[in-house]
Amino acid sequence: MTDTEVLIIGAGPAGLTAATYLGRFRRRTLVIDAGEPRACWIPLSHNMPGFPSGVSGADILTRMREQAEEFGAVIEPGRVERLAHDGDGFVAHVQGREIRARAVLLATGVVDHHPDLPGVERAVQRALVRICPICDGYEATDKAVAVIGHDDKGAREAAFLRTYSDRVTLIHIGPPQALTRHEELDRLGVELIVAPLEAVNLEQDRVTALGWGGRTRAFDLVYSALGTSPNAELAQGLDARLAPDGRLEVDLHQATSVPGLYAAGDVVRGLNQIAVATAEAAVAATDIHNRLRRIDGLTVSD
């Protein structure tokens, strides 16, 4: 049995930011890192505040990890298999080990649904297949862009990308009835292709061909609008309240419906952005610290 004051599950931008704050609040903080957070897929981010020339996801995570450790946070590899109540706190089961904590922050993120195509993960790493037009739509300016979707989310993303280019094509690979925005796409000048994809060919810095039904087309960039799945199973095990999309509902202090359990970053319903995740983590860490102070009788009345 290992005891800590605050357990953070997830070592992406949200988890590491919270670890820095809690370390500076002089809280014993343990971060469990399951490896490969979503941010590590970012080849170069140009909308990260403070980096006008861009910064890679790996560099962001390295800097944030060093900062958290500088202030005493302990970061260990592992995977939390189960989270349960333990008196007024929690106990986490981590590969045969038990960790008791007074408070827990979930920074477990989401899993992207990539197109089922050979080489697609490498294409994401090379920024040829992208997953976030809010992050990098600017880089699509005046380029030939394809959006792969299986429902009206694809139509919404294609419409959003018309901000940057008048050469946007939606490739709808889901059931025909799942797409209901045909007239709006036509009004916006978005080309629509309804067919399952069969192949993606990459060459240097371009998607040289997307193939369907014996036909091929070349694009400069391809966006996947196939959605995500939140990693909220640990909270579900505690009967935390979820939003309709499966993400965690939190209050203005990032507290879930379970006392002492907090959440920040992509696992929380909202905008999947590093800047948002770090802000949520700062709010959560501060409230965790103040909550523990109140429990310990270290505050004065308002």
TrEMBL record:
A Pfam family annotated for this UniProt entry: Pyr_redox_2
InterPro entries in alphabetical order: FAD/NAD-bd_sf (IPR036188), FAD/NAD-binding_dom (IPR023753), Ferredoxin-NADP_redctase_2 (IPR050097)
Domain FAD/NAD(P)-binding intervals: 5-281
Keyword Methyltransferase found: no
Domain of life of the organism encoding this protein: Bacteria
Keywords, sorted A to Z: Flavoprotein, Oxidoreductase
UniProt cross-references to PANTHER family, sorted A to Z: THIOREDOXIN REDUCTASE 1-RELATED-RELATED (PTHR48105)
Name of the protein this chain belongs to: Thioredoxin reductase
Originating organism: Brevundimonas intermedia
Source taxonomy: Bacteria, Pseudomonadati, Pseudomonadota, Alphaproteobacteria, Caulobacterales
